[in-house]
Amino acid sequence: MQDFATYPSLRGRTVMMTGGASGIGAEIVSGFAAQGARVGFLDLDAEGAQAMSEAHEGVTHEVCDLRDIDALKAGLAALRARIGPADVLVNNAARDDRHDWREVTADYWDDRMNTNLRHMFFAIQSVAPDMAAKGGGSIINMGSNSWWEAGGGFPAYATAKAAVHGLTRTMARDLGRDRIRVNTVVPGWIMTERQKELWATPEALQAQAARQCLPDLIDPVYVARMVLFLASDDAAMCSANNYMVEAGSI
Ligand SMILES: NC(=O)c1ccc[n+]([C@@H]2O[C@H](COP(=O)([O-])OP(=O)(O)OC[C@H]3O[C@@H](n4cnc5c(N)ncnc54)[C@H](O)[C@@H]3O)[C@@H](O)[C@H]2O)c1
Fold this sequence. Notes:
The chain is of the alpha/beta class. It has a single domain, classed as 3-Layer(aba) Sandwich (Rossmann fold). It contains 8 helices and 7 strands, in the order E-H-E-H-E-H-E-H-E-H-E-H-H-H-E. It has helices spanning about 25-35, 45-55, 70-85, 105-135, 155-175, 195-200, 200-210, 220-230; strands at about 15-20, 40-45, 60-65, 90, 135-140, 180-185, 240-245. Strands 3-2-1-4-5-6-7 form a 7-stranded parallel sheet, sandwiched between helices. Strand 1, helix 1 and strand 2 form a beta-alpha-beta unit. The model has no long low-confidence stretch (mean pLDDT about 95). The protein binds nicotinamide-adenine-dinucleotide. The site of nicotinamide-adenine-dinucleotide has 27 residues, from helix 1 and helix 6.
């Protein structure tokens, strides 16, 4: 077990999140809870979400499909009523479903944008006024190095993930005057249950090891640790930037 940092500034903070029921998001929820923060998250997976809330002190959730923006807004409002206005927003939820570029329809394209990108903007729009009223906040958008590595097989996902960087940069400018920081955390290949079940063949793992400078597979906890740092006051002068957690994946 690693001995990780404690951030006194996170104690008692209110964290809103998307996609906290599994994978990297679940690790982020656990990380914030361990720091003494209050966490409210939105997720489609009712069972996984319930298990996370039951397992952690100070964690609550609402079940919602983030593709439905009215449901997203209602979910955030319900969480706000329970745990107060947000200090931190982590836009984490996404789905890296594979698709053949020849078979993508306009409806599928739109669905991927709604799954991987659109809700991030509307979550920011929902919480930023509260953060401004509190004198500042931290917003963390989850990117991916897949598009940067020119990874193929999921053009709509990769395009949405590339756009996350643009969203971060432009919102960092608009919200910076209210001392709201906006950053992108950029994971490499992270060994979540979904990745292990669906894509982690021996050949794929070997190819990944060859791409990384560091030889070890990346556990989700390392992405969570970067998120905690960016949410904390230790990162008070960090905004509009990318923070890679990819073991030097070239
Ligand atoms: N795992 C990796 O290797 C990797 C690499 C690069 C980037 N990322 C990014 O990290 C973030 C987390 O990914 P993960 O690997 O932990 O994924 P995951 O599939 O394990 O977890 C995603 C969570 O989001 C929820 N979710 C998905 N679509 C939703 C919707 N429409 N409404 C509500 N909830 C929804 C899921 O139920 C799930 O709990 C994503 O933004 C992903 O793009 C992951």
